[in-house]
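User: What would this chain look like folded?
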Amino acid sequence: MTAQEFLKKTLKRWESLFEGIKLKYAYDAVTEYHIVEVKPEEIRRGSVDYKKAEMQLWMDFMEQYPDECLLICAPSDANDMTNVLFETKTTWSFISQEKVIKKESFDYTQYDFYQVHSSNIVEKQLNNINNYYALAA
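Assistant: Here's the prediction, encoded as C-alpha cells.
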C-alpha cells in the first residue's frame, strides 16, 4: 500500500469516527509533503479521541513510510492544496422544522429552514431569509 492509499484509508475512517470533521488531503510535489488539513478546531484541539487517532496515524505513518513527510494542521493559505487527493464529502440538504405560533387573533405556521450536513449536524439557520408563513383559517 502506498503512503497516499494509507492516508486516504485512514482519513475515510476518521470521517466516520468524528462527527462534523472536515478533512482535506493533498500531496505537494515541490516540498514532497503529504498535507492533511483538519477542521474545526473544536475537534482538532478539543477531542481526546481525535488526538489519540492523530498520534496513532503519526506513529503508523513514520513506521511504514520513514522516507515520506507528513504535515497535519489547520487549514492555511501557506499550504499548497492544489493537488487534492481526498476531501470529506459535503452533502447538503434542506429540512424544515415546523413551529405553530399564535399571535393575537391570527394563527399561522412558521417554517424555519435549516441547512443540514449529511451527518445531520445543524450547520446554519437561515434567519429571516427563508421564513414562510401560511395563514390558518
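Strands lie at 22-28, 33-39, 69-73, 84-87, 92-103, 106-117, 122-125, 132-135. If you want, I can go into more detail on any region.
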